[in-house]
Amino acid sequence: MNKLEYLIKTFSRTKRKDYENYILNAIWQKTNYLNIRPVTQQYVKGDNNKYYLIDLYFPQINVGVEVDEAFHKKNTKSDLKRELTIEEKLSSIRESSLFELKRIDATLPLQKLTERIETVSAEIKEKIVDKKITEWDTDVSIKEQIKKKEYISIDDFYRFRLITDVANQLFFKNYKG
């Protein structure tokens, strides 16, 4: 799947959530950096068989964006617990890059909302520059990346669509299905 297809599929996951869709797309457009890979609805496993979804996540810089719609104002206690769990899980994966969550209040008036989107986008851009992200982490095949580095790390952010992709890319097999 090429970048355009990936982006279209990624940002279409927020259908039926108008405010979230507007804000996430605005952040992506204002960040304006085609080498960072966004993930919407990023799954994070919690404790006791719970899981959480981050509205927008940039694994290359370990930054998430959470859109707080009106119902979040009634769930502040559970939202805080959720945020602390996500932060703990994602910070423990990469010691060199603690997880950072950016919150955007979707109930703000348009001018304030636009300013918040601008601020968050600028902070994300700054992280991208600091990390020196030079290519989309799927521009080079996984197999070629592993051959070049000669090892696999959690910081590689590899993603696979099918089990056969795991076998073929990580273990240099040639399975068809």
Describe the structure concisely for a colleague.
By secondary structure, the chain is an alpha+beta fold.
Please indicate the count of domains: 2
What is the CA-based Rg, rounded? Answer: 17 Å
The helix fraction, in percent, is 40-55%
Number of alpha- plus pi-helical segments: 6
Query: What's the count of strands?
Result: 4
Order of helices and strands: HHEEEHEHHH
Overall description:
The structure is a single chain. The protein starts with a helix and ends in a 7-residue tail after the last helix. Helix content is 45%, strand content 15%. A hairpin with a 5-residue loop joins strand 1 (39-45) and strand 2 (51-58). The protein has 2 domains: 3-131; 140-177, no CATH class. The protein has helices at residues 3-11, 18-31, 76-93, 110-131, 142-149, 163-170; strands at residues 39-45, 51-58, 63-68, 100-105. Strands 1-2-3-4 form a 4-stranded mixed β-sheet. Helix 2 crosses helix 4 (110-131). The protein is of the alpha+beta class and 177 residues long.
Defining traits:
177 residues, 2 domains, 6 helices, alpha+beta
Task: Describe the secondary-structure layout.
Blueprint (H helix, E strand, L loop, with lengths): L2 H9 L6 H14 L7 E7 L5 E8 L4 E6 L7 H18 L6 E6 L4 H22 L10 H8 L13 H8 L7
Parallel strand pairs: 3-4
Antiparallel strand pairs: 1-2, 2-3
